[in-house]
Every structure is written in C-alpha cells, then in structure tokens.
Amino acid sequence: MTLFSTVGLFIALSLFIALILGVIAIMPWLRASRAPDKPVDNQLLDINIAVFRARLAELKSDKDAGTIDDSHYQTQKLELERQLLDAQRVVAPMVVPGIKSRLIIIVWVPVLAVMAYLMIGDRTPVFELWAAEDKVGQVADDLLTGKIDQPPAWAIEDGQQLISAMQTNVYRHADDYNRWMRLSELFLSLEATDSALEALSRAYRLSPDNEEIATTYAQISFFANKGQLDDNSRRVLEAVLAKNPQHEGAQMLMAMGEARSSNFDQAQGWIKRLRASIAGKPGDHTQALASLDELSANVTTQQQQASEGIDVTITINASLLPLVKGDDVLFVAIRDVKGGPPFAAKRLPISVIKQGEVNISLSDLDAMMPTRTLKSARAGKIQLAVIARISHSGNASAESGDLSGNPVVISAEQNQVNVDINQQVP
Fold first, then answer.
1. Which of 112, 206, 243, 303 gives 20 to 30 Å between its CA and that of 151?
2. Which residue has the higher pLDDT, 155 or 243?
3. Sign of torsion, CA 340 345 351 353?
C-alpha cells in the first residue's frame, strides 16, 4: 500500500464512522418527518391523567374507609374532572426541524470530528511511521525472519525509517524470540547497548532454554557492566551450565566475572575446568590452551595485587537507610588527604549493600591511572584517607542529598578500615 492509499483509507473510515454517529444523533428528527403536519406533544396530558387516576383512587379509599362522606367525595371528584378538561384544552405542538437544520448537522458532525482529530496533537510521527512501513516494511520483516542478511542500499537511505519499521514489526510479533534476538543485533550495531539488553532480555524470557540467547544475553550484560557479573547474569550462566556443564562460553564468562569480583580461587577453578574440557577434545588446541594459561597467570597477578590492598567495611547509619534508593550508586575511594585524584576507586550498584553493610577491597587493580597506585603512594609515605558516598544521580562528584561519611585516615601499614555513612550532603 502507498502512503496515499493508507491515509485515504483512514480518512474514509473516519468519515464513515462520523456519518454513522451523525445519523444516529438525528434519527429522531428523520422519523418526525413522517408524523402529522401538526404534531402534538401529549406527554403532559398523559401525566395529568396518571395524576387524576391516582388522586381518584385516593378519594375512593378515603370514602370506603369512612374518612369522608359521599357528598364530599362527589364534590372532589367533579373538581378533578374539571381540572383534567382544562388541561386537555392546552396543547404543546412539537417543533419539527427543517431540511436546512438537518443538513447542517449532517455536514458539520464529520467536519468537526476531523478538525478535532487534527487539532488534538501533532500526527507527524504517525504519518512518518506509516510512510516507513509502506517503504521498508517488507525489508524489515525479511531481516527479522532471516530471509535476508543485509538490507538493500535503497532501504538504508533513511536508517531511522528502517529502525522504526523493525521495532514496529517486532512488537506486532512480540512472542517471536528470534525477532527480538535480531532486533538486539541491530541495536548493538548502533551501539545502543541498553536497548540491545532490553531486547535480549525479552528474547531470553520467551526462550530460556536457548543456549545461544542465554549466553549472548549474559555476555552483553557482562561487558555493559564493565566486566562485572550481576545477579541476573550469574543466574543466566548458572542455568546454562546446569543443563550443559561443558559449555565453554559460559565457563569463560564465569572465570572472567569471578576474577573481576576478586573471587580469584573460583576464577582459577573455572579456568581449570575449561582447560580440561578443551584439552580433552581431538585436534590441536595449543593456541586456546596458551590463552587460558595467560589468563590464569593474570588472575594470579591480580590476586597478588589484591592481597596488598585495603579491605573497607562500609556501614550505613540506620537513620539514613530510608533515604537509600534502588538506583543509587556507591562510590568508594582512597586518596591523598591533601586532595587530588584517587589512588584507587570503585563505583558499585547499591545492591552490593546487604542489611546496611558491605565489605569491599581496594587495591592497585582499582587504580585510576597506571602511574598513580596505592603501592606508589605507600612507597612515597603519602598519608591516605578512605571515603565512601552514596550518590542518587550516579555522578562522581558530590551533590546535595547524597549520603556520605567522614574521611577515615589510615596509616601506611593499615590494611583494614571501617567507614560509617552517617550524614547527608546539604
């Protein structure tokens, strides 16, 4: 369908519906044209008759009960009949609308409906979406169903049209996990990581047993979190390994994630399992095994550096716990008491804090710059302080409303410190 045909169909349907509503509204008038030349509104007379009957029945009841005598009964009855006759002499003719009035209603109902629709808001995005579907709708469907791998050159002249058509197509087939998977690939090619993760999460919910989708989801989430395995990624990988303990991609992600979380023994365990799995396969795997040996050596080095770091126990004052929000960020850093860039720092989601407390290790693995490390600071006898802050905005600099604690000065030999977050930044 062309853009003209789509818009034309919409306008025709709108006018048709408006016309139906208009006819319904004036149907009583149309019926009135078949009435006598001088129609009379008899509603008032009907009411008077009903009242007369009610009062007459009341009088008869009073007479039968002996409340009134026969003479009084006859007098009141005659008075009611006289009032009824007087009411009959007054008639209320019903005004019948003319042809002009009817035509005005018939014409203006659809006109006002169209004007109201156009004036309610800007419909440009709707028209643009229709244009995109008319132009590249079939191309989008072919891409999402795997019929083609690359769109034709003319279809990507306006990339936004193709993206809009693909998104609309996916939402129309929301139960098709393959379409969500291919949509995530599009977002990844555009470096829209958050949108890609959302599409992958939907694909995973639709097909949790699909190992490719599960590992891709965990991998993208892993790198989006800067090498951290969050609870969701860990749960996805554990589900994959429960069904396929030899899944190499899942084992590698677990090894890297455990190393990044400073769980070095667990990381070495995953590397050992992965190495045994690869070595047991037929063929030459020298390069892969060498890469695993290099990874194992790096983990050993990281473990050595971490052992030279400082363990920080952070506690949030109970009175401030109600101020902590689910999307807050925890910043922990070690810096010179005189100021300057930190020697080590971590930015963590607030979910790491359990029951108002968390233990964190800061070492040269968390150095901001290769030449500015804890080891060099201690060698230079620099007096260090540990700071901790909960940010509502996620920014590294302190802002009003953030929760923080007083800096804790540590000695050159000190390897453990407690920080209490007990105040709110004014």
1. 206
2. 243
3. negative
